[in-house]
Design brief:
6-stranded antiparallel β-sheet, alpha+beta, 2 domains, transcription, Chorismate lyase, Tscrpt_reg_HTH_GntR, 30% strand, Arc Repressor Mutant, subunit A
Length: 250
Protein backbone atom coordinates (compact mmCIF):
# COMPACT_ATOMS: atom_id res chain seq x y z
CA UNK A 1 0.00 0.00 0.00
CA UNK A 2 1.30 3.45 -0.89
CA UNK A 3 2.44 5.57 2.03
CA UNK A 4 -0.08 8.47 2.47
CA UNK A 5 2.82 10.84 3.06
CA UNK A 6 4.36 9.76 -0.23
CA UNK A 7 1.12 10.33 -2.14
CA UNK A 8 1.10 13.97 -1.04
CA UNK A 9 4.45 14.64 -2.66
CA UNK A 10 4.34 16.85 -5.75
CA UNK A 11 4.34 14.93 -9.00
CA UNK A 12 7.50 16.65 -10.26
CA UNK A 13 9.36 15.51 -7.12
CA UNK A 14 8.26 11.92 -7.74
CA UNK A 15 9.47 12.12 -11.34
CA UNK A 16 12.78 13.62 -10.21
CA UNK A 17 13.20 10.77 -7.70
CA UNK A 18 12.60 8.16 -10.39
CA UNK A 19 15.01 9.78 -12.83
CA UNK A 20 17.63 10.17 -10.09
CA UNK A 21 17.33 6.48 -9.26
CA UNK A 22 17.83 5.63 -12.93
CA UNK A 23 20.89 7.86 -13.12
CA UNK A 24 22.35 6.25 -10.00
CA UNK A 25 21.73 2.79 -11.45
CA UNK A 26 23.58 3.67 -14.66
CA UNK A 27 20.50 3.46 -16.85
CA UNK A 28 21.65 6.37 -19.01
CA UNK A 29 25.38 5.70 -18.82
CA UNK A 30 25.68 4.17 -22.29
CA UNK A 31 24.56 7.26 -24.19
CA UNK A 32 24.92 9.85 -21.44
CA UNK A 33 21.62 11.33 -22.61
CA UNK A 34 18.18 11.39 -21.00
CA UNK A 35 14.93 10.94 -22.94
CA UNK A 36 13.48 14.09 -24.46
CA UNK A 37 10.97 16.18 -22.54
CA UNK A 38 8.28 14.96 -24.92
CA UNK A 39 9.14 11.32 -24.27
CA UNK A 40 9.16 11.90 -20.51
CA UNK A 41 5.75 13.60 -20.59
CA UNK A 42 4.35 10.52 -22.34
CA UNK A 43 6.09 8.03 -20.07
CA UNK A 44 5.04 9.72 -16.84
CA UNK A 45 1.68 10.97 -18.15
CA UNK A 46 2.59 14.44 -16.93
CA UNK A 47 2.45 17.99 -18.23
CA UNK A 48 5.58 19.34 -19.86
CA UNK A 49 6.01 21.97 -17.12
CA UNK A 50 5.88 19.19 -14.52
CA UNK A 51 8.66 17.34 -16.33
CA UNK A 52 10.66 20.55 -16.62
CA UNK A 53 10.33 21.13 -12.88
CA UNK A 54 11.58 17.59 -12.27
CA UNK A 55 14.56 18.15 -14.53
CA UNK A 56 15.17 21.45 -12.77
CA UNK A 57 15.67 19.59 -9.49
CA UNK A 58 18.25 17.29 -11.06
CA UNK A 59 19.95 20.20 -12.76
CA UNK A 60 20.22 21.98 -9.42
CA UNK A 61 21.90 18.88 -8.00
CA UNK A 62 24.47 18.99 -10.84
CA UNK A 63 23.32 15.59 -12.10
CA UNK A 64 22.27 16.75 -15.56
CA UNK A 65 22.78 19.65 -17.93
CA UNK A 66 20.93 21.04 -20.91
CA UNK A 67 22.80 21.68 -24.14
CA UNK A 68 21.25 24.21 -26.46
CA UNK A 69 19.30 22.51 -29.22
CA UNK A 70 20.63 19.07 -28.32
CA UNK A 71 18.81 17.80 -25.24
CA UNK A 72 19.49 16.84 -21.63
CA UNK A 73 22.66 14.96 -20.72
CA UNK A 74 24.34 13.50 -17.67
CA UNK A 75 26.63 16.13 -16.26
CA UNK A 76 30.33 15.30 -16.53
CA UNK A 77 31.80 18.81 -16.39
CA UNK A 78 33.09 19.78 -12.94
CA UNK A 79 32.34 23.37 -12.00
CA UNK A 80 35.28 25.78 -12.18
CA UNK A 81 36.14 27.39 -8.81
CA UNK A 82 36.53 31.12 -9.48
CA UNK A 83 38.12 32.84 -6.48
CA UNK A 84 37.76 36.50 -7.43
CA UNK A 85 40.41 37.68 -4.96
CA UNK A 86 43.00 34.93 -5.30
CA UNK A 87 43.00 34.77 -9.10
CA UNK A 88 43.90 38.47 -9.46
CA UNK A 89 46.74 38.41 -6.93
CA UNK A 90 50.06 39.90 -8.05
CA UNK A 91 51.81 36.74 -6.86
CA UNK A 92 50.31 34.93 -9.86
CA UNK A 93 50.64 37.30 -12.80
CA UNK A 94 53.80 38.83 -11.33
CA UNK A 95 55.40 35.39 -11.53
CA UNK A 96 54.40 34.96 -15.16
CA UNK A 97 51.36 32.77 -14.53
CA UNK A 98 48.02 33.35 -16.23
CA UNK A 99 45.05 34.50 -14.17
CA UNK A 100 43.24 31.44 -15.51
CA UNK A 101 45.75 29.04 -13.92
CA UNK A 102 44.15 29.73 -10.54
CA UNK A 103 40.72 28.83 -11.91
CA UNK A 104 41.43 25.76 -14.00
CA UNK A 105 44.12 24.17 -11.82
CA UNK A 106 45.62 22.14 -14.64
CA UNK A 107 42.49 21.62 -16.73
CA UNK A 108 42.80 22.49 -20.40
CA UNK A 109 41.93 25.90 -21.82
CA UNK A 110 41.44 27.22 -25.34
CA UNK A 111 40.62 30.77 -26.33
CA UNK A 112 39.61 32.61 -29.47
CA UNK A 113 41.07 36.12 -29.36
CA UNK A 114 40.37 39.20 -31.47
CA UNK A 115 42.35 42.40 -30.87
CA UNK A 116 41.52 45.71 -32.53
CA UNK A 117 41.68 49.46 -32.06
CA UNK A 118 38.18 50.96 -31.86
CA UNK A 119 36.24 53.98 -30.70
CA UNK A 120 35.45 53.62 -27.03
CA UNK A 121 31.79 52.90 -26.13
CA UNK A 122 30.34 55.76 -24.07
CA UNK A 123 30.19 53.87 -20.78
CA UNK A 124 33.70 52.47 -21.17
CA UNK A 125 35.07 55.85 -22.26
CA UNK A 126 33.56 57.45 -19.18
CA UNK A 127 35.10 54.88 -16.85
CA UNK A 128 38.53 55.06 -18.48
CA UNK A 129 38.39 58.85 -18.85
CA UNK A 130 39.03 58.73 -22.60
CA UNK A 131 35.92 60.30 -24.13
CA UNK A 132 36.39 60.96 -27.84
CA UNK A 133 39.49 58.77 -27.97
CA UNK A 134 40.18 55.29 -29.23
CA UNK A 135 40.91 52.24 -27.13
CA UNK A 136 42.35 48.79 -27.71
CA UNK A 137 39.72 46.07 -27.39
CA UNK A 138 40.46 42.44 -26.63
CA UNK A 139 37.50 40.11 -27.31
CA UNK A 140 37.76 36.47 -26.21
CA UNK A 141 35.72 33.30 -25.94
CA UNK A 142 37.17 30.72 -23.57
CA UNK A 143 36.67 26.96 -23.70
CA UNK A 144 37.62 24.17 -21.32
CA UNK A 145 37.18 20.48 -22.11
CA UNK A 146 35.61 21.55 -25.44
CA UNK A 147 32.92 23.48 -23.56
CA UNK A 148 32.41 27.27 -23.99
CA UNK A 149 32.60 28.73 -20.49
CA UNK A 150 33.10 32.48 -20.80
CA UNK A 151 32.97 35.39 -23.21
CA UNK A 152 34.83 38.57 -22.34
CA UNK A 153 35.58 41.95 -23.84
CA UNK A 154 38.24 44.21 -22.33
CA UNK A 155 39.23 47.78 -23.23
CA UNK A 156 42.50 49.64 -22.58
CA UNK A 157 43.42 53.32 -23.16
CA UNK A 158 45.27 53.51 -26.48
CA UNK A 159 47.68 56.15 -25.22
CA UNK A 160 48.71 53.77 -22.45
CA UNK A 161 49.15 50.45 -24.24
CA UNK A 162 50.13 51.49 -27.79
CA UNK A 163 53.15 49.48 -28.91
CA UNK A 164 52.90 46.91 -26.11
CA UNK A 165 52.03 43.22 -26.33
CA UNK A 166 48.56 44.13 -25.07
CA UNK A 167 47.78 45.05 -28.67
CA UNK A 168 48.82 41.55 -29.82
CA UNK A 169 46.92 38.27 -29.60
CA UNK A 170 49.59 36.75 -27.34
CA UNK A 171 50.34 39.04 -24.41
CA UNK A 172 53.14 36.84 -23.04
CA UNK A 173 53.84 35.41 -19.56
CA UNK A 174 51.61 36.88 -16.86
CA UNK A 175 49.24 38.31 -19.45
CA UNK A 176 47.89 41.84 -19.67
CA UNK A 177 48.54 42.72 -16.03
CA UNK A 178 52.23 41.83 -16.28
CA UNK A 179 52.53 44.01 -19.40
CA UNK A 180 50.78 46.91 -17.66
CA UNK A 181 53.20 46.50 -14.77
CA UNK A 182 56.17 46.72 -17.14
CA UNK A 183 55.06 50.18 -18.27
CA UNK A 184 54.47 51.39 -14.71
CA UNK A 185 50.70 50.93 -14.63
CA UNK A 186 50.26 47.54 -13.03
CA UNK A 187 46.93 47.04 -11.23
CA UNK A 188 46.96 48.12 -7.60
CA UNK A 189 43.26 47.47 -6.96
CA UNK A 190 40.20 46.10 -8.72
CA UNK A 191 36.47 46.65 -8.60
CA UNK A 192 34.06 43.95 -9.77
CA UNK A 193 30.32 44.39 -10.20
CA UNK A 194 28.20 41.27 -10.70
CA UNK A 195 24.66 40.52 -11.81
CA UNK A 196 22.80 37.47 -13.08
CA UNK A 197 20.25 37.28 -15.90
CA UNK A 198 19.07 35.00 -18.67
CA UNK A 199 21.08 35.11 -21.91
CA UNK A 200 20.06 36.77 -25.14
CA UNK A 201 19.70 34.48 -28.15
CA UNK A 202 23.15 35.30 -29.58
CA UNK A 203 24.75 34.88 -26.15
CA UNK A 204 23.19 31.46 -25.65
CA UNK A 205 24.60 30.35 -29.01
CA UNK A 206 28.08 31.63 -28.14
CA UNK A 207 28.13 29.70 -24.86
CA UNK A 208 26.22 26.69 -26.18
CA UNK A 209 23.53 26.96 -23.50
CA UNK A 210 19.75 27.10 -23.46
CA UNK A 211 17.85 30.36 -23.11
CA UNK A 212 16.79 29.22 -19.62
CA UNK A 213 20.37 28.81 -18.35
CA UNK A 214 21.48 31.92 -16.40
CA UNK A 215 24.64 33.82 -17.21
CA UNK A 216 26.78 35.73 -14.72
CA UNK A 217 27.79 39.20 -15.88
CA UNK A 218 30.91 40.63 -14.24
CA UNK A 219 32.37 44.05 -15.00
CA UNK A 220 35.88 44.53 -13.63
CA UNK A 221 37.77 47.81 -13.56
CA UNK A 222 41.50 47.72 -12.79
CA UNK A 223 43.25 50.77 -11.31
CA UNK A 224 46.97 51.53 -11.15
CA UNK A 225 48.79 52.92 -8.09
CA UNK A 226 47.73 56.48 -8.98
CA UNK A 227 44.12 55.25 -9.11
CA UNK A 228 43.91 55.68 -12.86
CA UNK A 229 41.52 53.17 -14.49
CA UNK A 230 43.63 51.08 -16.87
CA UNK A 231 41.19 48.34 -17.86
CA UNK A 232 37.47 47.73 -18.16
CA UNK A 233 36.65 44.05 -18.65
CA UNK A 234 33.09 42.86 -19.28
CA UNK A 235 32.72 39.11 -18.75
CA UNK A 236 29.81 36.77 -19.32
CA UNK A 237 30.07 33.39 -17.59
CA UNK A 238 27.93 30.30 -18.06
CA UNK A 239 26.46 29.99 -14.56
CA UNK A 240 26.35 26.20 -14.91
CA UNK A 241 30.14 26.10 -15.38
CA UNK A 242 31.25 27.99 -12.28
CA UNK A 243 31.43 28.15 -8.50
CA UNK A 244 32.08 31.70 -7.29
CA UNK A 245 34.44 31.91 -4.32
CA UNK A 246 35.42 34.97 -2.29
CA UNK A 247 38.37 34.65 0.08
CA UNK A 248 39.50 37.76 1.94
CA UNK A 249 40.87 38.69 5.38
CA UNK A 250 38.61 39.62 8.28
Amino acid sequence: MKDPAQSKRPRYVEIADELRARIDSGAYAATGKLPSERDLTIEFDAARNTVRDALGILRGEDLIESRGGSGVYLRTFERIPRDAVERLSRKHWGAGRAVWDSDLQGRDRQENVTVEKVDAPDEVAGTLGVRGEQVWRRSRVYHSEKRPIQQSTAWYPADLVEGTAITKRNTGPGGVYARLDEIGHGPARYREELKVRLPLSAESKTLGITLSTPVILIVRTAYDSSDRPVEVNQMMLDADSYRLIYTFPS
